[in-house]
Structure formats: C-alpha cells, structure tokens
Amino acid sequence: MRKFMTSLTTVAALSLAAIPVLGLTQAANAAEPVARISVGDLNLSNPAQAALFKARVETAANALCRAKARNHSLDMPHGVCVAEVGREVSRNLTSPQRKALQFAARAQAVEVAAQ
Questions:
Q1: Model's pTM, two decimal places?
Q2: Is the pLDDT of residue 110 over 50?
Q3: Contact (Cβ atoms closer than 8 angstroms) between residue 37 and residue 56
Q4: CB-based contacts of 60: which residues, under 8 Å, 6+ apart?
Q5: Which of 7, 38, 85, 103 could form a Cys-Cys staple with 45, CB 3.0–4.6 A?
C-alpha cells in the first residue's frame, strides 16, 4: 500500500507541475493579432482619399491595440501602441504610396491656405 501511495503522490505532483507548462505552451502558440489595411481602392494623392486611408489606419491601430490588450500582450500604453502601428504602416508603404500621400498633404495645405 505504501508503494502505491508513493507512486500516486509522484504522479499527482508531476501532473500539477505540468499544468503551468501547458498554459505557457498555449500562450506561446496564441496567434499575434494582425491588422490589414486596404489601399488598393484608394488614390492616395487625392486629399479626401488620403484622409480615408488615415482613418482606416487609425481604426485598424485601435482594434489591434485593443486585441493585444485583451490577450495581455500589450506592453505599452494604448496611445503609444497606436502611434507605433502608424509608424509601422508608414514603413510598409511603397515609395509611390508615400509620395502620393505627401502630394495629398501639400494639396490640402494649399487648399486651406487659399480659403
């Protein structure tokens, strides 16, 4: 009986030790939130459509940062996360897309100055 109890205690201890490891494995395999922003339907050199692109980026950034907060993987304030997503989007734009957005910003500045 003593041998049985020792074996049972060992199995129980090993089972309890494995539970936290299983939790870590699930957390490691959890998919990192991803945001996709559509730009193919926009003319980024048009100020109105550039503003629509900016709104899409802000919406996606807020959704992504909220998802990271829910997953407890957000290691920065929400505003910093949103700004970082915006910088990442800017880095991923092609050169023509960046130039089109710069053109739209200049066109909008001229339009405001003309009023």
A1: 0.66
A2: yes
A3: yes
A4: 35, 36, 37, 85
A5: 103
99's tokens:
């130039």
Length, in residues, of the chain: 115
Q: Residue ranges per domain, the chain?
A: 1-30, 33-114
* First-to-final CA distance of the chain: 94
Taking the C-alpha atoms of residue 38 and residue 42, their distance in angstroms, rounded to an integer, is 8
3-state secondary structure the chain: CHHHHHHHHHHHHHHHHHHHHHHHHHHHHCCCCCCCCCCCCCCCCCHHHHHHHHHHHHHHHHHHHHHHHHCCCCCCCHHHHHHHHHHHHHHHCCHHHHHHHHHHHHHHHHHHHHC
Structural contact between residues 22 and 51, judged by C-beta atoms closer than 8 angstroms: no
Answer whether 85's CB lies under 8 Å from 62's CB.
Answer: no
Phi, psi for 74 (deg, rounded to 5): -90, 110
